[in-house]
Amino acid sequence: MKIKWSPTWQLANELQGIVLIGFSLLIFKLMVTGEVVRLVAPKMVPLLYITMALLFLLGFFRLLNSNLKGADCDCDVCDENASLMNLTFSYLLFFSPLFLFFTQQDMSINKSILPNTQFEHGQTFSVSQVNNEAANDEDMIAIEDDNYLQTMDMINTNLDNLVGKEIMITGFIHREESFTDKQAVIARYVMTHCIADLGLYGYLIEGEVNELQNEQWYVIKGKLEKKEYEGQLMPVIKVEKVEVTEEPEEEYLYALDY
Amino acid sequence: MEEKEYAMSIPTRVKDILIFGLFLAMMYLFFFGDIYVANKWNFVLPDQIKTIFVLFLGIMLEALPFLLLGAIASSVINLYISEEYIARIMPKNPFAAIGVALIAAVITPVCECAIIPVVRRLIQKGIPVHIGVVLLMGAPILNFIVFGSTYYAFQNNLSIAYGRFIICILASIIVSIIVYMLFSKQKVLKTHREDLMAVVPINENKGDSKWKGILHHTCHEFFTIGKYFIIGAVFASVAQVYLKDSYIMQAGESSIEGTAVMMGLAYVLSLCSEADAFVAASFSKMFTPEAIIGFLVFGPILDFKNTFVMMASFRIKFVLLFILIVTIVVFILSLVSGLFLA
C-alpha cells in the first residue's frame, strides 16, 4: 500500500501555528478575566492586544500554509528538518506553559515568596518631586491611589517639616518578624513593569495595632512622626483611628502610570 | 511521487491527525481547562511552583511584544536590506564605524531581547562583529524610553542617570575595540542550516511572494529565539523565588563587593531595561552609587534570559568571551565612576 509522506519541517510549522494560536488565546483569556493587570502594568495592555492579534493571524497563516507554498524564502530557514525526538522536546517547551496556564483557576500567588516584598527594602522610592510644597499647607495629608508614590516621596524628603501632621492612608497590613506587638506596616504593592518587579511600599505604624490582621485592608488615620527603625530614620504613623475596608478593585499601584 | 525523498518524514495522515488532535486539545483546554481538568484531576500546583510559573508568565508577557517585534525586524532586514547597502553606509575606518553604530543604537528603540536577532542578521549581512557588539550593548540602554525612565527614577540624583549613559557608551566603545582585536577575523555566528549556501533547497513549492516570506521567516525567528527565551525566563523566575536577597544585602556597604553583588543581581533578575531603573532606585539607599551604575549598565546588556537568546545566535566561545569582557569592563568602569559620583 502506498502511503503519503510529509517532511518533519511541515509538522514543525504546523506545531508552531498551534503554539502561536495558543499564546494568543492565553493573552485573550487574561484580557477577558482582567487578570492581565496582575501580571503586567496597564501600559503594556495595548501592546498585548496588538501582540494577541498578530499571534492569532500569524498562527493561522503558519498552520494553513505549512508547506511554504509561494513564499519567497531565499534562506531556506523555513524547511529545516529535525528528528521527531528533537521536535517533541522543543515543542514540549512551548506547550507546557500553555497547558499550565489553561489549567489554573486564577493567577493569584503567595506574594511573600517574591524577592522585593519585604518592608525594609521597599520604603525608599525616590521617584518624583512633584508639588513638594503643595501638601505643606494642608492640615491633613490624604494618601490616595493616584498620589501614593508622590506623597511617599514628598514625605520622605520633607520629613522634618511634616512631623505632627494628620495623615490618612488606605492599605493592607504587613508584618515582619522583627516587629513588636505595637508595630505593623500599612502598605501597597507597586508594579513597575511586570510582576517580577513587584515591590512593597508602605509606612510603619505604631500604636494599638494588635487587633489588625495581616493582609486585611484598612483605612488608617494618625499623626506623622519621625523615628529610627533598624538604623534608618523614617516616617512612622501614630495610629489614632482604624477602619476596616474592602480590598480595592485594582490591587496594585502602577509606578509608571502618572 | 516525491515520498521517501525526505530524509526525515512522517506519514501525512499521522501528521494531520496529530495536528488536528492537538488543536482540539488546545481548544478544550482553553474553554474548559480551568473547570474540568483542574477540578476533576485535582490538578493544583504547589505554592512555590505556581509563584514561579506566574512570575515566568509575567516576564514572558512583558517580553512577548518585543520578541515579536525583533523577529519581524530581523526578517524585514533579511529581505529588504542588502549587503551592498550596508557596505555603502558603513565607514571603512573601524573607529568611525563605532561612532555610526552608536548613533544607530540611539535610534533603534529595541530592548535586549529584540536586538539579538537583529544584530545576528546584520552580522550575517556583512557588518563587522565589533560594530554588532556596539549595537548589542548600546541599543537596550541608549534610547529615549530608557533615558526617560532612568531620569524619572533618579530625579534626586541625576548624576546616576547621566552616569548610566556615559558608562554605557564608554563600555561599548572599549568592548568593541577589544572584540575588534580578538574576533575581527573569526566567525562568531552559530552555523545554522540556512548559512550553508551549498544546501540544495528541499522545498520546491517556493514562490516569490515577499510578504509570505516575511511571515514565515518571522515565525521561524520567533521560535528559534523563543526556545532560549523560555529557558532563560524559567531560570530568572526560579532565581527570583529562591535567591532571596537576605545575604546579598550585607554586601551593600563595600564598594567592590556591592558593585559585584548588584551586577550579579542585575544578571539574575533579568529585568527589562525600561523597568530596572525603578528597581535600582529602591536599592539606592543601601548601595553605593557605583554599585547602582553597575546594576543599570550591566543588566540590560547581559542577563539570564538574553544569555540563552545569544547562545541561539552566536557561537558558545564568542558568547562566553563576550560575557567575560563585558563583565570586567563594566565592573572597572563602575568602580571608576564611583570616584566621580561620591
From TrEMBL, chain A:
Keyword tags: Membrane, Transmembrane, Transmembrane helix
Q: Where is the DUF1980 domain?
A: 15-113, 132-254
Q: Name one Pfam family in it.
A: DUF1980
The membrane spanning regions, by residue number, are 15-32, 44-64, 84-102
Q: What is this protein called?
A: TIGR03943 family protein
State the organism named in the record.
Niallia alba
